[in-house]
Amino acid sequence: MAQSVCYFTDSVEVGGAERALLLLIGSLDRASWRPTLLFNRGAEALAEEAARLGATVDEVPAAPVGLRGARRVPGLVGRLRRERFDVFHAHLAWPLAAKYPLAAAIGARVPAVVATVHLAPEFALDRSTRLQHRALSTAVGRYVAVSHDVAAQLAARLGWPPAKITVIHNGVRLPATEPRRDEALRNSLAGAAPLAVTVARLTQQKGIDTLVRAAADAPGVQFAVVGDGPERTRLEAAARSLGVADRVRFLGHRHDVPDLVAAADVFVLPSRWEGSSLALLEAMAAGKPVVATAVGGTRELVTDGETGILVPPDDATALADAVRSLALDATRAGALGAAARARVAAEFEISAKTEALTDLYRDVLKARRGRG
Fold first, then answer.
1. Residues 12-59: pLDDT tens digits?
2. At CA 164, angle to CA 72 and CA 103, rounded to 5?
3. Which residue of 12, 53, 205, 208 is 20 to 30 Å from 243, comparing CA positions?
4. How many CB atoms neighbour CB 59 within 10 A?
5. Strand, helix or coil at 15?
6. Rounded to 5 degrees, what are φ and ψ at 297?
7. Segments in the chain below pLDDT 50
8. Is the Cβ–Cβ distance between 243 and 216 less than 8 Å?
9. How do beta strands 266-269 and 290-293 pair?
């Protein structure tokens, strides 16, 4: 009989962490696991996609930090007790997310309480918050970090028990064949010029301002930035100021992201920090040579000079040089892209990552039942 697993996210965006959750739901063995997604108002797009993948979905009231969130814990405890889930798995866009829902799962005595931490940026942490989360960590069954870098930060900065932190990188689906390039789409973006594509939410984290500055040092290369976010207006103004607005196109949200990546000669990710980037893994799976910054979990996905090129963060000159080197050397670019695709097939395919997670569920359930 299938066991029930309750997924939770308090995010209302559909970014990398949320797409990783959807990939997990879509690849679960339904003979063994029956998924439910609990979400907060504003995340309807995420819920609709989860429902399309066969999950039961239901909205629950948001539980923000503070007294208002604390008051909602008893209601969620009652809900979780009635549903009698075997596993509660929260997906955290940053380490301090979902404090009250995790506490509710512990209070409801869900047998296995698991939390995946997708990102660990720098943030201020007062003593009270540190103590609260350290206490919570003793009751959570297991934390999953999407990179060794994230795991190290959780242990060092938050004091979470290293024995409770398991590293499972994000996974992606590997296309059966490398996607075919849509020449009409490519020509509309770059004509005969080399094309560099970036897929990212337009926030400070993603370093798109460095990419705009790099474009000024990479004449002849066209850049397409896929995604939206609070930095878009400022970034477009910077492109105009540097005289590269005709070569850096901001495409906003798109539903043809795989086609856009397939059209690229180079995939670029200039982030200032990363957990385990799905956009980067998807580009590697598509056989694209990648240029990325040597930060966080990216260093665990890309081997410099073998499956891509790594450059320092915030270094527009190094970024421009790396992009131009691949744009001008199709042989090397092809070799890096092929090696990147092979590495994803060997180490980051979603079915293997899902199996690792469900094995973790079973381990936590077994340990809990062993304690009575």
1. 888 889 999 999 999 999 999 999 999 999 999 999 999 999 999 999
2. 10
3. 205
4. 14
5. coil
6. -70, -15
7. none
8. yes
9. parallel
Cβ neighbours of residue 259 under 8 Å, at least 6 residues apart? 179, 182, 185
Token pair 């790396």 in the structure block, residue = 322
Record the tokens describing residue 76, joined without a space: 């969620």
| Closest by Cα among 332, 326, 330, 331 to 311 | 326
DSSP label of 72: T
Q: Which two tokens stand for residue 125?
A: 């942490």
Distance CA 198, CA 268 (A): 5
Please say whether the beta carbons of 317 and 296 come within 8 A. no
Question: b/e per residue, 135-161, with b = 16+ CB within 10 A?
Answer: ebbeebbbbbbbbbbbbebbbeebebe
Nearest CA among 46, 24, 21 for reference residue 354: 24
Residue 176 has a pLDDT of: 79
CA 357 distance to own-chain centroid: 16
Question: Do the beta carbons of residue 127 and residue 105 sit within 8 Å?
Answer: no
Taking the CB of residue 363, how many other CB atoms lie within 10 A of it? 14
The structure tokens listed for 192 are: 């005969």
The phi-psi region of residue 41 (left if phi > 0; otherwise alpha if psi is between -120 and 50; otherwise beta) is beta
Q: Tell me the C-alpha distance between 251 and 225, whole Å.
A: 6
Q: What is the pLDDT of residue 130?
A: 79
Hey, what amino acid is at 266?
A: V
Phi-psi region of 207 (alpha: psi -120 to 50; beta: other; left: phi over 0): left
Q: Do residues 34 and 4 make contact, with C-beta atoms less than 8 angstroms apart?
A: yes
DSSP letter at 218 equals S
Question: Cα(371)–Cα(137) distance, rounded to whole angstroms?
Answer: 18
Structure tokens at 82: 């009635």
Helix 127-139 and helix 148-158, axial crossing angle in degrees, nearest 10: 120
Residue 83's Cβ-count burial label (10 Å; 0-12, 13-18, 19+) is middle
Q: Are 80 and 143 in contact, with CB atoms under 8 Å apart? A: no
Tell me which residue has tokens 């080197």: 325
Closest CA relative to residue 293, chosen from 149, 177, 151:
149
Across-strand partners of 117? 92, 145
pLDDT digits (tens, 9 = 90+) for 350-370: 999 999 999 999 999 998 776
The pLDDT assigned to 234 comes to 98
Q: What does DSSP say about strands 309-311 and 248-252: parallel, antiparallel, or unpaired? A: unpaired
